[in-house]
Amino acid sequence: MADDKVLEKNGLYYPPQSFVDKAHINSFEQYQQMYKRSIDDPEGFWGEMAQGFHWEKTWDKVLEFNYHRSKGPISIEWYKGAKTNMTYNCIDRHLETRGDQPALLWEGNEPGEDRIITYRQLYEHVCKFANVLKGFGIKKGDRVTIYLPMIPELAISMLACARIGAIHSVVFGGFSAESLKDRIVDSKCSLVITSDGTYRGGKAVTLKQIADEAMDHSEKEGVTVPKVVVVERVGAGKGIECPMKQGRDQYWHDLVATAEGDCPVEWMDAEDPLFILYTSGSTGKPKGVQHTTAGYMVYVSLTHKYVFDYHDGDVYWCTADIGWVTGHSYILYGPLLNGAQSLMFEGVPTYPDSGRFWDVVDKWKVDIFYTAPTAIRAVMRMGDDFVTKYSRKSLQLLGTVGEPINPEAWRWYNEVVGDSHCPIVDTWWQTETGGILITPLPGAIPTKPGSATLPFFGVQPCLLDDEGKEVEGNGVSGRLAIKAPWPGQLRTTYGSHERFETVYFSDFDGFYFTGDGAKRDEDGYYWITGRVDDVINVSGHRMGTAEVESALVSHPTVAEAAVVGFPHEIKGQGIYAYVTLKVGEEYSEQLKKDLVLHVRKEIGPIASPDVIHWAPALPKTRSGKIMRRILRKMAAGESDFGDTSTLADPSVVGTLVEMKGK
Ligand code: WTA
């Protein structure tokens, strides 16, 4: 059927008619009307959108906020006075209507290894583990660090925390002992949940020993973790060790074996914290982005429903790791709130071969598929055959997140993966925003490859110039900021409200500043151009250049380091490090390798520098500030560095050029 295809007209891509016919929001006019209402009457709109949930007590006021630092502390409160519980809404609320329907579809690392967990089974697992937590004395407000691979126990742990009001802090399993230690120390957690190991491709690797090292080091910084729960994921005979510390460490399976299968929920205030998730910024150590209960719940549920045009019975798959916000909001909470079947994948797109994604799509008959541009580029590179050998007949909608998608990858995703039959939603958002802010609604908003298009309901983006003045009209660019709160927004950074205010609200009074640059084209569509701060986006993961620099400088041979991003074919951005050695140290290939290993150990493999460029000196202004603009251009292979006359020593640039590739 010709009209069953995504149609292109004048650079705009329209959804197939059959998709529009069943879409929740199925015309541009409907989007505009609902959007207008959400902006004109946010309290009316968000009050209505919150109707379907279970509220133990309803709110007194939908929204109260102050966005102006000049007028006092920044505060954002949604559904004030309400009482509810996230886990109750994700599970208990569905038991009567869909208790026997799958909630989680788990696809293990090895093809053929899988598990289906129904809502009723999930209820039991979560209650049992919540009782285990209670048995350890964990109560409302306590922090629990979760350092697990993509196994069902990860989801169960989070839901168990939310059930009893404990605040989870999930740490991505690819982070090093140092990074885990920082997060344990900052959150002062009372419990760590980890596993014996995990799989990387076909190989088992330890997690427990990394966690042990992190806890040894956290102890030296005054934070002793009293209890550790260990999931046996790999087991004996696979070449990894799992030392257990007497009195501190216990196995998950032993603990749940004797736990009760019911556990009452803790009714939480709307603004009680739900979780913290650490993310990189332009300065200092990663900060704990704190999300609260009611607003986040309403926002992730609504965005999941409308952005993915989710319908009852759809099989939904987001390929992210739950260690990132995408997994929190769109593998766990959003889908379960909507009673979806959410697929959770432990492996990687290239194991056992580059067709794994599509193999999984066919196996589970996935309707909605959400991934990152870096993953698309990685599989695209391996050739179409890996895709076309699978039917992918079930697919109805494709999504991307994490970084700008280059139009070439977008078209490949559309034509090869989606057979020009599935709309694509390019969703822009951040750890801090909790949920998607700028995105097409697939049945209503025609798309343009590379543009995240238009704001979701209730979201008021704007572009600011250097003075913080709003740039009006279309065909303009600037710094992307948001003018008013939306329910999923972060409320603070853990342990320091001051830091939260400085990072997000001090550059431009009265606005939440995103750190991204963007342009708004003639049609009012937004195009995210990337970070305007010292954050680089490597394979869709945020990395502060300052973090990588401080890891490098902690190596005994390094005097100084400057890190910038550079265009990278697969990763989007790669990490380019200029390194000045201490006097007497020698340049060598071996030392380059050692430095890369050192950064991996300090932060994790995702922070590995792609290029080390020896720098006898760095280009600095007379006041000592490193001119990163020059370093960025050099890293990108450009030869025109602009005005270098303000450098303390302009000859440094020539020397650096000579050292390139040495
Ligand atoms: C970038 C991930 C362009 C952006 C959910 C943002 C994007 C940062 C997109 C947040 C997109 C995310 N197009 N850029 N669709 N989505 N970004 O906190 O720079 O890991 O500020 O959240 O990723 O990354 P984070």
What does this structure look like?
The structure is a single chain. The chain is an alpha/beta fold. The longest helix is centred in the first third of the chain and has 17 residues. 5'-O-[(S)-ethoxy(hydroxy)phosphoryl]adenosine binds next to helix 12, strand 22, strand 26 and strand 27.
Q: What topology, given as strand order, has the largest sheet? A: 14-13-10-8-9-16-17-25
Q: Count the strands?
A: 32
Class by alpha and beta content? alpha/beta
Query: Terminal Cα separation, in Å?
Result: 58 Å
What proportion of the residues is helical, as a percent range? Answer: 25-40%
Ligand catalogue:
5'-O-[(S)-ethoxy(hydroxy)phosphoryl]adenosine
Q: Please mark out the parts with pLDDT under 50 across 5 or more consecutive residues, or reply none.
A: none
Enumerate how many helices there are, as a single number. Answer: 21
- Mean pLDDT rating: 96
Cα-atom radius of gyration: 25 Å
Largest sheet: 8 strands, mixed
- DSSP strand (E) fraction? 15-25%
Any idea what the shape is? globular
GO molecular function: acetate-CoA ligase activity; AMP binding; ATP binding; metal ion binding
Family: Belongs to the ATP-dependent AMP-binding enzyme family.
Cofactor: Mg(2+)
EC number: 6.2.1.1
Give me some keywords for this one.
662 residues, alpha/beta, eight-stranded mixed beta sheet
